[in-house]
């Protein structure tokens, strides 16, 4: 954290300790909550230091690191953790002791040569198990795995295979590993852990992330007073904070510009498709296509709208509904911005789409 960020960081020691103690007890937690509400900050800056202070090895795994194949990103994070352990002598039980190359018996000696190196599997699913095994061999401490944006696994074609591999690998080491699977999509995360025909069914306790509340607004009001010598109306600030999805950054004066810039960064077709989803209209119906054509000033094909929706999904703006029928907005702040800007201009097209 920068000095400024650190000064404005609102510590949630009670929540961090509660989660940390459960992970130390080797629980598995699936925690979901909207984006930009402080989950990652809590996990990285408070929960991980807490478990590390209690002699656990914590591994942070961002499942967005490789969105095309999250398992590659998971293995990369595990390999980094293994590399880090390999160069830390304190508190680590090293398995790479000096190899015995020669033995003697009754005056004769036998040269055993160099020991065979363990070959890492090439298949990512097997490599996952191998890396976890090597991590546990490398240290006598228990592991705490912190998965962030875990729902990314549900968005890829081989998601069920990745989930099955994770379950198999973690089950084998459940006496030494605690894990939290954090995600910003309650729909996808609940589907992964609560639907009976999924590989991770019942594998972790599902629960909602505890959002920031009035105590956070009190903290902000105190900082505001220190910086400006003015008082902040905490009741009004809390109402606005709730309306904007309890996202801390929304209290910044730069927030409106951020969402206006995000809108301007979309193509006209994407803007039209996003507006249709926000208004809960069937994006490829005849009426919606006619409306989009009018807004864009060009002929629009249903396939073009479908491609725009896929692009918005890839940008993390939309996600598919749990039943697979249609799309929905992810971010409550984006919904608030669209509601307050019904006349946001849609870029005109240069030719037919």
How would you describe what is shown here?
With 353 residues, this protein is α/β, with parallel strands linked by helices. The chain is 47% helix and 12% strand. It contains 14 helices and 9 strands. It has helices spanning 3-7, 13-24, 39-52, 70-86, 124-138, 159-172, 186-194, 214-228, 234-243, 255-264, 268-278, 286-296, 302-314, 332-340; strands spanning 28-32, 57-62, 102-105, 108-111, 143-148, 177-183, 205-208, 318-320, 327-329. A hairpin with a 2-residue loop joins strand 3 (102-105) and strand 4 (108-111). The protein is globular, with a radius of gyration of 25 Å. Mean pLDDT is 85; it is low at 94-98.
Terminus-to-terminus distance: 46 Å
Overall pLDDT metric: 85
Order of helices and strands: HHEHEHEEHEHEHEHHHHHHEEH
Number of helical elements: 14
Q: What assembly state would you assign to the polypeptide chains in this entry?
A: single chain
Report the biggest beta sheet as strand number plus sense, adding barrel if it closes. Answer: 5 strands, parallel
Let me know the number of strands.
9
**What level of helicity do the residues show?**
40-55%
Main-sheet strand order equals: 2-5-6-1-7
| Global morphology | globular
- Identify low-pLDDT runs: 94-98
Structural class: alpha/beta
Amount of beta strand: 5-15%
Radius of gyration: 25 Å
Write the layout of secondary structure elements.
Layout (H helix, E strand, L loop, with lengths): L2 H5 L5 H12 L3 E5 L6 H14 L4 E6 L7 H17 L15 E4 L2 E4 L12 H15 L4 E6 L10 H14 L4 E7 L2 H9 L10 E4 L5 H15 L5 H10 L11 H10 L3 H11 L7 H11 L5 H13 L3 E3 L6 E3 L2 H9 L13
Parallel strand pairs: 1-6, 1-7, 2-5, 5-6
Antiparallel strand pairs: 3-4, 8-9
Helix pairs in contact: 2-3, 4-5, 5-6, 8-9, 11-12, 11-13
């Amino acid at each position: 954290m920068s000095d400024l960020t650190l000064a404005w960081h609102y510590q949630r020691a009670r929540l961090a300790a509660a989660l940390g103690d459960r992970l130390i007890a080797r629980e598995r937690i699936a925690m979901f909550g909207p984006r930009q509400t402080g989950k990652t900050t809590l996990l990285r800056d408070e929960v991980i230091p807490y478990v590390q202070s209690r002699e656990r090895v914590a591994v942070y795994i961002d499942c967005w690191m490789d969105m095309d194949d999250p398992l590659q990103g998971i293995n990369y994070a595990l390999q980094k953790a293994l590399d880090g352990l390999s160069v830390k002598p304190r508190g680590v039980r090293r398995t790479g002791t000096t190899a015995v190359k020669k033995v003697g018996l009754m005056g004769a000696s036998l040269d055993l040569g160099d020991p065979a190196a363990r070959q890492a599997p090439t298949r990512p699913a097997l490599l996952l198990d191998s890396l976890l095994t090597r991590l546990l061999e490398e240290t006598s401490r228990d592991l705490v795995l912190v998965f962030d944006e875990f729902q990314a696994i549900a968005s890829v074609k081989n998601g069920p295979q990745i989930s099955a591999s994770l379950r198999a690998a973690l089950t084998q080491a459940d006496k030494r590993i605690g894990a939290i699977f954090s995600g910003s999509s309650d729909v996808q995360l609940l589907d992964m852990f609560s639907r009976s025909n999924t590989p991770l069914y019942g594998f972790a306790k599902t629960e909602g992330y505890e959002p920031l509340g009035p105590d956070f607004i009190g903290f902000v009001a105190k900082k505001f007073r220190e910086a400006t010598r003015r008082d902040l109306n905490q009741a009004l600030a809390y109402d606005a904070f709730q309306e904007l999805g309890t996202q801390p950054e929304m209290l910044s004066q730069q927030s409106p510009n951020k969402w206006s810039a995000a809108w301007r960064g979309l193509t006209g077709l994407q803007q039209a498709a996003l507006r249709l989803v926000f208004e809960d209209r069937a994006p490829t119906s005849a009426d919606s296509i006619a409306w989009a054509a009018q807004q864009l000033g060009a002929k629009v094909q249903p396939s073009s709208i479908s491609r725009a929706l896929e692009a918005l999904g890839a940008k993390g703006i939309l996600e598919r509904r749990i039943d697979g029928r249609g799309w929905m907005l992810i971010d409550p702040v984006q919904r608030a911005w669209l509601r307050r800007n019904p006349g946001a201009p849609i870029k005109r097209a240069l030719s037919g789409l």
